[in-house]
Amino acid sequence: MSMSEHYDTIVVGGRCAGAATAMLLARAGQRVLLLEAGRAGTDTLSTHALMRGGVLQLHRWGLLDAVVAAGTPAIRHTEFHYGDDVETVDVKPSGGVAALRAPRRTVLDPILLGAARAAGVDVRHGVRVDDLLRAGPRVVGVTGRAGRRSVRATADLVVGADGIRSRVAATVGAPMRHTGTSGGALLYAHVAALAGPTDRYRWYYRPHAAAGAIPTNAGRSCVWVSVPAARFGAVRGDLDAGFRGLLAEAAPGLAAEVAAGALDGPVRGFPGLPSYLRAATGPGWALVGDAGWFKDPITTHGITDALRDAELLARAVLDGDPRAYEHRRDELSLPLLSVTDRIAGFRWDLAELRELLVELSRAMRPEVEALRALDAPVATAA
């Protein structure tokens, strides 16, 4: 790859946000290059759960059938366990969404990348972007390496979709617009043969601890437990024992199911990170997904927001007004970020938590309404 290769857009990062953004821009006729440092088909830290907005996006883009065909179970209920009290909420079919889904990232990411390739995106794996090219203050391309080969390409726009430690965000010095105060530690594992139902998300809450069970592909469930970040140091030396001990504290019944099941792979841990929201656009660059903003995974809303923002950014780019993306993103995101920050702080009792979850539900509605209000998905060019 050399300077002779010029693209309308270069997307750095090929996970949910990056692959979806590249796909939508290419469907609209742009020449798009997508660069991903990792190997194709690899797993990544994720709780998998899609909320209604995420399922709606996959449906609108014509990709939901592939997720279903991969054996991703239908989620038709959500259970909320407040200590020993249980409330069940049914998922009401609406607007093309009959059920929620929680695909493994080894399922969802390849589907999005396959759709990007089908739209004409030039997808390159194993490429590490080291720096950005500039013409004065404007970003005009990227440099990096693919093994021993150097990479150099130019574009009218460079999109950073390269996660929490975004090289694009760091290089352009994207200003922080908001920083949170809380970040819970998270431990999770994939478990086979859980005894509980596979047609629902199960959320468990007790003082200073929360947990969940999320049915996903191949008969596995993603089981997670979250506690205040200060407690991570005590378990990081033995994540398996820490996971089981904290799970027994947060959800004794679920811990018993895990003990009777079989772990599929190791326990993974995340020490916690306070939420943030960065400026999303600048001269020749934009940020999407965790590169632009991050909130604690305790509300399992990250993938849904990544898919939402991919279309908000693509539409704004095609309309020639990327700053409109930042305005709409912030309008929809700040209420979600605020309530998630308070839940992740674990400074609630169960009565207060119920109110926070009601507030979270209210904060999700404008997102779904905004997606439904779009006249149509970004269309394939004739």
Provide a descriptive summary of the structure in words:
With 382 residues, this protein is an alpha+beta fold. It has ten helices and 19 strands. It has helices at residues 16-27, 52-60, 64-69, 105-118, 167-172, 239-250, 252-260, 302-318, 322-344, 350-373; strands at residues 6-12, 32-36, 77-82, 85-90, 122-125, 128-135, 138-146, 149-160, 176-179, 185-192, 200-206, 209-215, 220-227, 262-263, 268-270, 276-278, 281-282, 285-287, 293-294. The longest helix has 24 residues, at 350-373. The model has no long low-confidence stretch (mean pLDDT 94).
- Over the alpha carbons, how many angstroms does the gyration radius reach? 20 Å
Low-confidence stretches: none
| Secondary structure: helix percent | 25-40%
Element order: H for helix, E for strand? EHEHHEEHEEEEHEEEEEHHEEEEEEHHH
Overall pLDDT level? 94
Give the CA-based shape: globular
* Class by SSE composition: alpha+beta
Count of strand segments: 19
Give the amount of beta strand, in percent. 25-35%
Figure out the total of helices: 10
How far is it from the N-terminal to the C-terminal residue, by CA?
A: 28 Å
Q: How would you classify the quaternary structure? A: single chain
Largest sheet at a glance?
8 strands, mixed
Characteristics of this structure?
alpha+beta, globular, 382 residues, 8-stranded mixed sheet, 19 strands
Summarize the structure.
With 382 residues, this protein is an alpha+beta fold. The protein has helices at 16-27, 52-60, 64-69, 105-118, 167-172, 239-250, 252-260, 302-318, 322-344, 350-373; strands at 6-12, 32-36, 77-82, 85-90, 122-125, 128-135, 138-146, 149-160, 176-179, 185-192, 200-206, 209-215, 220-227, 262-263, 268-270, 276-278, 281-282, 285-287, 293-294. The chain has 10 helices and 19 strands.
